[in-house]
Amino acid sequence: MKKLFLIIGAPGSGKTTDASLIAEKHPEHLVHYSTGDMLRAEVASGSELGTEIESYISRGALVPLNIIVDTIVSAINHAPVPNVLIDGYPRSVEQMEAFDAIVAEEDGIDLASVIEVRVSEAVARERILGRAAEAAPGEGRSDDNEEVFNDRMKVYTDPLEAIQNFYTDKNLLHVIDGARTLEEVVADMDAFVLSKI
Ligand code: AMP
Fold it and tell me: 98: how many CB neighbours lie within 10 A of its CB?
């Protein structure tokens, strides 16, 4: 049985950094996967699937449902430890419903919580555009620029209320204030995750 924590947050919320630091602290109990990192790894592999994925990432658009569902189900099934943090999912009502059906069908996955790392749009924008400005030439992410940021923010925000309502009704939504320092956010999320495993 895998105990699963889904972590959602705007681009720039820090969700990937927070989750990876927590998993690093407890390698014997917890593993972390970021949907964005898994998709970028597929792009870096140079596969045909990677080329298709890059065409979505570079526009700030969501990759198709079947690709992302296969990616996360495979990550959960191959996880080497019983507790799994996945950040970046769900990002649409369609993804949320698809995953709900998978959890209902499979005995092996227990959804422990959906953690929302909440930041204002101003904080998100400042962090992402700051990250872009600091990246060495040729080293930055293809989607860290103002135009794509605006699209990513809209893609994040549009389904957010429906996602919040769905998991609030199931008593699974846990909101964390992501505008604080990295240490504070990580300490808060770490304590919460540990309380559930
Ligand atoms: P991130 O690293 O979380 O900012 O994600 C970067 C990009 O990867 C997104 O803008 C999407 O193009 C793609 N992506 C990440 N997670 C998902 C997801 N759950 N569904 C579809 N596309 C995703």
Answer: 17
Tokens coding 24: 């690093």
Pocket test for ligand 1, best of 51, 55, 57, 85 (most atoms within 8 A of CB): 57
Query: Ligand 1 center to residue 108 CA distance, Å?
Result: 25
Q: pLDDT tens digit string along 104-155?
A: 998 899 999 999 999 999 999 999 988 888 888 888 888 888 888 999 999 9
Rounded Cα distance between 97 and 130, Å, is 34
- Nearest atom of ligand 1 to the alpha carbon of 37: 2
Q: Please state, in angstroms and as integers, the Cα–Cα distance from residue 124 to each residue in 14, 25, 159, 187, following that order.
A: 9, 26, 17, 20
**CA–CA distance, 143 with 132 (Å, rounded to integer):** 9
* 66-115 residue pLDDT tens: 999 999 999 999 999 999 999 999 999 999 999 999 999 988 999 999 99
Ordered structural domains, the chain, with CATH: 2-196 (3.40.50.300)
The answer to pTM > 0.70 is: yes
Atom of ligand 1 nearest to the CA of 40: 8
Q: How far, in Å, from the CA of 127 to the mean position of ligand 1?
A: 17
Output Rg (C-alpha) for the chain, integer angstroms: 16
Q: Which of ligand 1's atoms lies nearest the C-alpha of 148? A: 10
